[in-house]
Amino acid sequence: MRSFSGSGFSFPLGEKTYIMGILNITDDSFFDGGRYTDVSSQLKRAKEMCRDGAHIIDVGAQSTRPGHIKKSAQEEIELLSPLLEKLTQTVDVPVSVDTFYTSVALFSIKNGAKIINDVSGVFNPEMARIIKEYNAGWIITHTGGADSSTALDYNGKTVECVNSFFDEITEKCVSFGINKNQIMLDMGIGFGKGYEDNLELIRNISFLKREDIALLTALSCKRVIKNSSEADGEDLLFGTIAANTAAVMGKTDFVRVHHVRENALALKTADALFRG
Fold first, then answer.
1. Which end of the chain is least crowded, N or C, by CB within 10 Å?
2. Please, which residues bridge with residue 98 across strands?
3. How far is 170 from 225, CA to CA, in rounded Å?
4. For 103-145, how does the pLDDT look when each residue is reduced to its tens digit (9 = 90+)?
5. Is the model's pLDDT at 162 over the cut of 70?
6. What was the pLDDT predicted at 89?
7. Checking DSSP bridges between strand 18-24 and strand 137-141, what pairing results, if any?
8. pLDDT (mean) for 84-110
9. Quick one: which of 25, 34, 42 has its CA closest to 77?
């Protein structure tokens, strides 16, 4: 059976849309920075998201918002250290850690994380070695080599460029000995892309989806939602649900969201419509 799976987790593909709940533990994240900066509030929020329908808790110790100040690997570990072991013992879903540092990935896996959400946009052999050795999940994001502050020129071929990257990165993973079921591909909404590029990717998710590899759509409350909906703050939920519904129609496997309950409820209907 096709799945996203590794040590301690397995998600069959094609049956439903899975929810990744975002737990930002920094004070500078673009949407909810500063809300969950102590272990008590972090654990409380994680438990809330699990009750609301999260299938994965994705912990972020580094903001990737436009203009962010990059934290070191040691700073990430200092933020994760008081939380991670307690979190993995508290929730009954896999924990993912959002990092591009290999030292943080190794620390996270040794402290109970099952998945590494890597937004570096490159194939790092050391990261690949860790993923292979520990049979972890690896979320790999297309960035085009740019961050969230830069929009590259794709000459109207954004979908083609992302697809080429997906093919290339998958081949490298398989050649390294990583199973396809350990990989989840992320089109990188907001990373190295302008407004029209992001819309084009969301419209064409069906062309980005591979039958045997998990696909993540991570657009929750991002600039493309803010610009298209002309909303801000908590009202970004509505545009997020609209775009995630389009993603489900395109057969995405996972969505990464801030508002777990609302998206989980909405996407049950989207699943009934488009997966029935």
1. C
2. 60, 117
3. 29
4. 999 999 999 999 999 999 999 999 999 999 999 999 999 998 8
5. yes
6. 94
7. unpaired
8. 97
9. 25
**8 Å CB contact between 139 and 96:** yes
CA 15 – CA 32 distance, rounded (Å): 31
In this structure, are residues 104 and 79 in contact, taking their beta carbons and an 8 Å threshold? no
CA distance linking residue 109 with residue 112, whole number of Å? 5
Sign, CA torsion 21/30/89/131: positive
Rounded to a whole number of angstroms, the CA Rg of the chain reads 17
Does residue 67 register a pLDDT over 90?
no
Write out the chain in H/E/C secondary structure.
CCEEEECCEEEECCCCCEEEEEEECCCCCCCCCCCCCCHHHHHHHHHHHHHHCCCEEEEECCCCCCCCCCCCHHHHHHHHCCCHHHHHHHCCCCEEEECCCHHHHHHHHHCCCCEEEECCCCCCHHHHHHHHHHCCEEEEECCCCCCCCCCCCCCCCHHHHHHHHHHHHHHHHHHHCCCHHHEEEECCCCCCCCHHHHHHHHHCHHHHCECCEEEEECCCCCHHHHHHHCCCHHHHHHHHHHHHHHHHHCCCCEEEECCHHHHHHHHHHHHHHHCC
Q: What number of other Cβ atoms are within 10 A of residue 257's Cβ? A: 28
Triad 123, 129, 134: Cα angle to 5°: 125
pTM above 0.90? yes
Q: Please write the tens of the pLDDT for every residue from 144-158.
A: 887 766 888 899 999
Q: What is the pLDDT of residues 72-85, one digit of tens each?
A: 999 999 999 999 99
What are the backbone angles phi and psi of residue 124, rounded to the nearest 5°? -100, 115
The mean pLDDT value for 250-265 works out to 98
